[in-house]
Amino acid sequence: MTENSNGPGEDLTLAGRYLIHPDKPLPAYDHATAFAVDATDQRAPTRRLTAMVCRSGLVPRLDIIPQLSRLMRLPMITPIEAGPVRWPETGGRRFVVLFERPLGDALAGKLGTKFEALREDQITHKIIKPILPALKEMGGRSIKHRAIRADNIFYKDSTCQSAVLGECASGPAGMSQPKLYEPVDAAMVLESGRGQGTLADDMYALGVTIAVLLTGGNPTEGMTDEEVVATKIRRGSYITLVGDLQLSLRMIEPLRGLLCDDPNERWTADDLELWANGRQLSPKQPMLPTKASRAIQFGDSEYLTRPSLSHAMGCRWGQAAKLITSGEVTNWLRRSFGDEESATAIEFLINSSGGGRQAEDQLISNTLAVLAPNHPIRYRQISARIDGLAAALAVNYGDEDFRASFVEMIKANLPQTFLKSAGSSGKSDRAALTKTFDMFSYFLDRRQLGNGLERALYEAIRGWPCQSPLIADDYVCELDDLLPALERVARRGSANEQLIDRHIAGFCAARSKTLAECVPQLLAPTTDLAKERLGVLAIYAEVHRITGVSQRFPALTAWLAAMATPIYEGYHNRVMRDRSQKAVDRVGSKGDLSALFAVLNDSTTRTADVAGFADARTEYGRLENNINWLMGGGLAAPDYVQAKSRQAATFLSAVISSFAVLALSIIFVT
Amino acid sequence: MTGILLLPVIVVLFPSCIVLFAGMVPSIVAYMVDRTKGKYLAITVALMNFCGTLPGLTKLWQAGQAYDASLRIAADPVHWLASYGAAGSGWLIYLAVPPILSVYYSSISAKRIETLRRKQAEIVEIWGSEVVPGGAQELSEE
User: Fold this and answer.
1) Which A residues in the span 597-626 are in contact with B, Cβ-Cβ below 8 Å?
2) Which residues of A touch B119 (CB under 8 A)?
3) What residues does A625 pair with on adjacent strands?
4) Which residue of A has its CA nearest to B96?
5) Given an 8 Å threshold on Cβ–Cβ distance, is B123 in contact with A616?
6) What per-residue confidence (pLDDT) applies to A427?
7) Do A657 and B41 touch (CB under 8 A)?
8) Is the pTM value of this prediction over 0.80?
9) Domain that holds residue B22
10) How many domains does chain B have?
11) Low-confidence ranges of chain A (pLDDT < 70)
């Protein structure tokens, strides 16, 4: 990954080699998380490049870009170069991922557009067989594509004989996928809450892609997303997507395998390879949830399965509590499923639930987890796979209601409870996720700057850029980017009194081990403005030290120097204050944050100032007492004058008599 | 104890003691009337009184410390005048110094206040108005 070097008014250049042309959009390659523009390789101008520009507020898959860059020979569009560039429309920075543009078109247009359906043999020979090596290689490296769909698979060239997988790195995993392409649990959640996903999700998406290509359009046309999900739950994915299509037994086999709703039973790339090589595998039978002997009424619909009811209650959150607390759900579980354990668990939840809205919401969330343990976690408007919960927060951080709901979830330990009861993830995953949510609880209990929800967010998602309003548009995802971004803010003149905010503090603490502990201490609430600003400066100086003291930030240093007035104004001694101010002015123009901090954090001078001030105060008081005594006639007071006069008279008498004795002695001798 | 130790001296220097006693009577009186701690009046008068008595003693010692010479000198009005005059001047010094000193102190008080104020201003100049106990506010009001 390379940092761009362009400045305002210059061409958009990535890695000093690739020119990006924002004025030449390529809408055919756009998707939900990124849009495409033309790009040129200055060393090879004939290359056809596409620059995928990440949409604001989203981040690319930084973890897989380096790995994918090394898989150039695979039938897949892999990143050539990636990095942030300054985007002319906004003035901020956007993350751009460069790809080689395929010579052929996409297999299909966006979901919903109709096209000529492909024959089964075309799908086998032109699509499945060519992309299998890519699926196997990615499977071997545990890289999940999470963007396999008909409009993101391209013909390799204009002969349209072989397909290549489209790009998958320019947005969060799975976020660009329409709900149709996602397995039931991922389709139920927010796009941002799908998590990293699994290889099984990719195989499912391939199955849906085949169904779409065989249909020549959306196989569920006329149904809303929610209806598709509900039908998948009720009838199974295979029936929902393949439906009445007339298929050969040979094509039914992979579709049943790939569209199997149980991820453990779903076909893998190896199974598909065996099938493509002519081996016959036994067709998977759809696994449908157990039906109840009688339906339960919820709203104006009746439900026969637990997952259907759970999904419906999650979608109509406001009505769910009434159904649960009425005891209908527990009766239904006992009478229609004979499931005493689940019924007792829900009864316990009802009895232990206190009053109020939050308690009601927690009751619904926990009940849904009991009803359908393999479904995603839900809480009010939040629905996410448990490993995608933090990412959902990150994407929706600007939504205050979402944030409030998330905090309520964490405070009630709902994710930890969900992890204990859910059986979908592995033991190690569960331990890691539990640790993550414990970390959220820890930081939420500590609200001071440098902790709180922001800190937890940056700790949980290592590549998430800093969302501070000061630099949110600058795509600061590493500590190295922070000071240059603040330097740009200072140069623009948009710097204000707010030197640091909750996001920058949390970001610094999360991205540096040395700052992790000291940020909350340095930014502890205080009424002493000098102490507060010295704390801020200490943090930026430490960031400067960590990221390389050779860099210079003149505008930022000048900004901080101007803000540092209360620090040196805090000196009592005018000489020290003037000397410190001169030193700040001198260092401030050089752009060295560490030096600025060293000047302002001179403990020797500060100690001398405090001690000197105390002495000066004492001396002033002593002088004042003397003046008061003199003004009160102290020197001319009769008692004082009398006392001094006695001494003076005695002294005078002694002097005179001494001279007299001396004179008489001389006379007597001579 | 001191009297016992001085007894041989008095016996040996008895003529000098006659002259000295006769001349130092004002000092003895001053000692008796001086109620102050330190007996400054007695000391002042005694020092001057001794100076007035010293010429008589000198005459006695020139006459070989004879007993009759001591009586003669003790009865000499000039000796009396010198001793008592000197003691009187000591008493005058003691009485004259207080009014003089009072005038002097009155005259230097203003100057001293001015000096102290200047020192205070220097402290404020260096350390700021916060150095004034109880306040910067008072100064700003001024």
Assistant:
1) 612-613, 616-617, 619-621, 623-624, 626
2) 623
3) none
4) A649
5) yes
6) 58
7) no
8) no
9) 2-141
10) 1
11) 1-11, 283-286, 422-428, 494-497
Predicted confidence at residue A8, as pLDDT, reads 44
Q: Which CATH class is domain A12-100?
A: alpha beta
Structure tokens at A149: 């769909």
Between CA A449 and CA A525 the distance in angstroms is 8
Among A619, A627, A636, select the one facing B106 at the smallest CB separation. Answer: A636
SS (H, E, C) chain B: CHHHHHHHHHHHCHHHHHHHHHHCHHHHHHHHHCCCCCCHHHHHHHHHHHHHHHHHHHHHHHCCCCHHHHHHHHHCHHHHHHHHHHHHHHHHHHHHHHHHHHHHHHHHHHHHHHHHHHHHHHHHHHHCHHHCCCCHHHHHHC
Domain assignments of chain A as residue spans, ordered by start: 12-100, 120-276, 296-460, 472-601
- Averaged pLDDT, B41-46: 94
Shortest Cα distance, chain B CAs vs residue A583, angstroms: 19
pLDDT at A550: 84
The C-alpha of B1 sits at a distance from chain A's nearest C-alpha, in angstroms, of: 28
Q: Which chain B residue shows the shortest CA-CA distance from A642?
A: B98
CATH number belonging to domain A120-276: 1.10.510.10
**Which pLDDT tens digit goes with each residue over A627-669?**
998 888 888 788 888 889 999 999 999 999 999 999 988 887 7
B91 part of contact set with chain A, CB < 8 Å: no
pLDDT tens string A68-97? 999 888 999 999 999 989 888 777 888 999
pLDDT of residue A35: 94
